[in-house]
Design goal:
- The protein is mainly beta and 304 residues long.
- It has one domain: Maltoporin, Chain A (Beta Barrel), CATH 2.40.170.
- It is 2% helix and 66% strand.
- A twelve-stranded antiparallel sheet has the order 1-2-3-4-5-6-7-8-9-10-11-12.
Length: 304
């Protein structure tokens, strides 16, 4: 068993200017610890916990721009105070002399002290697994898979329509969820002392969803407490990268490479039967792309 830890403190002052000049400061304190746990048979594993506390000191000009009934800007995320916690568990285990398995789980919880509109919080979960196999001295194969989910919470203000000022700048809360599932494999083959081949393939499926809740009566007719869910956005991507490297001489290497990408998306704003005016009546992006590349690298002087 091995225990490590540390503490870090940082103070960052920023001066920015658009129409108004702002001078703001953020102090952060980071505590972390990593515990290498006793092996369970062939399994090696470790646990890491990290906490960060952020305090901000906003300039008078910044506060004056935010503390109004109809602010024209949100507080940038790099100036937000708050607390973040990170938890990570990872491990690896040899399954044989030539096969190794590894996995990792990571969770982030980040809460912001934001009294104005904009970002309120975010958290995420990430899980990955990897399997590698040294098939021979010349061939190595590995496969991987991962799942990622990100969640954001933010607060907004309704635009003040001049014809209906009764509920100007009604607040609303939006929650955004992004999820991604990916998998792939790669192969490395040293065909001969001067010839090497590689293949990398990956596939990912990504989905986003949005849900909003009105916190006060809105001029557009929504009552406080009502919720809306917008259709999500989905992307499916496949990629293939295959290469052949030939050491023509001690100084010359020739590479032949083939790239392929298949991209499919589904977005409600691009549909032909809904709101396609937002996308100028174009269809949601989808394509198949191929590329063939040839490169030659020549070293004029031998390395020392």
């Amino acid at each position: 068993m091995r225990l490590r830890g540390g503490v870090e403190w940082a103070s960052i002052e920023r001066t920015t200017r658009s129409v108004t000049r702002f001078g703001d400061e953020v102090d952060s304190t980071r505590l972390w610890t990593e515990l290498r746990l006793p092996s369970l048979g062939a399994l090696n594993w470790s646990l890491k916990v990290e906490g960060t506390d952020r305090d901000n000191s906003l300039s008078a000009a910044r506060r004056a721009a935010l503390d109004v009934a109809a602010p024209s800007q949100a507080l940038p995320d790099y100036l937000l105070g708050g607390r973040a916690w990170l938890y990570q568990l990872q491990g690896d285990m040899p399954l044989s002399d030539t096969v190794m398995a590894a996995a990792s789980y990571r969770r982030l919880v980040d809460d912001f002290d934001n009294d104005h509109y904009g970002l309120r919080g975010r958290d995420s979960d990430e899980l990955s697994v990897n399997l590698s196999w040294q098939a021979s001295g010349d061939v190595a194969v590995s496969a991987w898979g991962q799942y990622q989910e990100y969640r954001l919470s933010q607060r907004g203000l309704e635009f003040n329509p001049t014809a209906a000022p009764s509920h100007a700048n009604a607040p609303w809360r939006q929650r955004i969820k992004d999820a991604s599932v990916g998998a792939g494999f790669n192969v490395r083959w040293q065909v001969s002392p001067v010839l090497a081949a590689s293949v990398d393939f990956s596939h990912s499926d990504n989905d986003s969803s949005y849900r909003s809740r009105w916190l006060a009566d809105a001029d557009t007719g929504e009552a406080a407490g009502t919720a809306d869910s917008l259709p999500g956005y989905a992307v499916d991507v496949q990629r293939l990268d295959a290469a052949l490297d030939w050491d023509y001489s001690d100084r010359t290497r020739i590479r032949l490479r083939y790239l392929y990408e298949r991209f499919r998306s589904s977005d409600w704003a691009w549909d032909d039967d809904q709101f396609n005016a937002l996308a100028f009546a174009w269809n949601s992006p989808r394509y198949d792309a191929h590329a063939l590349l040839v490169s030659v690298r020549y070293q004029f002087r031998e390395g020392r």
